[in-house]
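Aim 2 progress. For Flavin-nucleotide-binding protein, the working sequence is reproduced below.
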Amino acid sequence: MADSDAVYPKVKLNSVNRLRNRGKYDFATIHGLVNKSPVVHVSFASDPSEPFPTILPMIGQMGSFQDPSAGLDSPLDCYLHGYVSSRIMRLSKEAVARGEDGLPVCVTATKVDGYVLALAPFHHSYNYRSAVLHGYAQPVEDDDERVWAMELVTNSVVPERWENSRTPPTKTEMTSTTILRVKIHVGSAKLRSGGPHDDRFDLKDESVRGKYWAGVVPLWEVMGEPIASGDNSVAQVPGYLRDYVQKQNDENKEIALNAARE
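Predicted structure tokens for this construct:
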């Protein structure tokens, strides 16, 4: 795939308007943010008579059932995991039954890498990475794709967890779980890194610079030592889990520190 093909088209719906230089439209950046976020937020219109949109925290992961080896820089769908009778699942099924592309949804993911403290409150900010996807949610009906998506989502929580837990799913588990496939229409990302951007007159004022601390407080997610459940009978924390916790903690710290220095 050519680099020019590995981006979402820039249209009115997904264009970053304020601080446009922070906008990104490439697949790899956007898909990577979704896949690194433990929770995505999914918004949709729940009722034509209701003026307020609905927004739900959900577990989501980018992937391609047709091409499971596809990288983040490839066209991917967003798979969402939920309970069979939930409102978003019902509305998605109804939309498909009407012959529509699916339920229009917006999926967002955000990572905060630091608090940016400037000389003046006006210039305080965050170092962050955020992604927004617009698309159409459809229930996955094919059993093979559903199981594949369940594995995808499970391994997004902890890699190798699917094969290190009791599988395959039981009939009851399959019946009570619905997987939504969001066909992406457009997407965009917005990122900030670096220190504060203070006004020139404050930077020239030694009394201000000498009185107020300015800089970045790096911020990252840290996973603690795994704690066994009361029903656990495995003596030691598995190596795949211990390795993942350490690797992810190191990676999160490095990202936050690098963002503060840029």
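The first strand starts at residue 23 and ends at 24. This observation will guide construct design in the next reporting period.
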